[in-house]
Amino acid sequence: VWASSEQNRINFLRQNQQTIRAELYSGLQDMAVDTDAHDVDLSQLGQRIILPSSFQGGARHWYEQCQDALAICREEGSIDFFVTITCNADWPEIKAELLPGQTPSDRPDLIARVFHLKQKAIFHDIIHKNALGTVSSYIYSDEWQKRSLPHVHALFMMGQPDKLHNTTAID
């Protein structure tokens, strides 16, 4: 269902390039007009499809996400903690729910659910219970490894009294 829905979104974007004002972006048109490109066979260039920044996973979406993260860091100050949370397929919560003969890689839904619950618990401890100090802001990114295991990279900026100013503040 997700793949079908995603394909419908991409087809809409392909057929409505005028609606999203794709002509404003340079690329294929610049290549066709470029005076140094007279020896280029235009039939080999294909058609460039512009994905809007609202299309998750597109280059413009990632660029905007990066710009937002940099703006947060610029506003809040330096990053105090870089935390990586990695899933372990041998967690007892995962092993207990597997049917006989199943491996964790057979159940990506189970792995994702258990990891998300553990991530929420860790974030709750850090942000709301102030395990590292008072958090003024944070940024995180979910990723999936090639072995189908999720992990999170998180950046935490602390409030002024809990900022790390020297190495003696680290225990």
TrEMBL record:
The Helitron helicase-like domain covers which part of the protein? 1-155
Tell me where on the tree of life, at the top rank, the source sits. Eukaryota
Q: Where is the signal peptide?
A: none
Q: Which InterPro entries match?
A: Helitron_helicase-like
- Protein's recorded name: Helitron helicase-like domain-containing protein
Native organism is Lentinus tigrinus ALCF2SS1-6
Q: What is the lineage of its organism?
A: Eukaryota, Fungi, Dikarya, Basidiomycota, Agaricomycotina
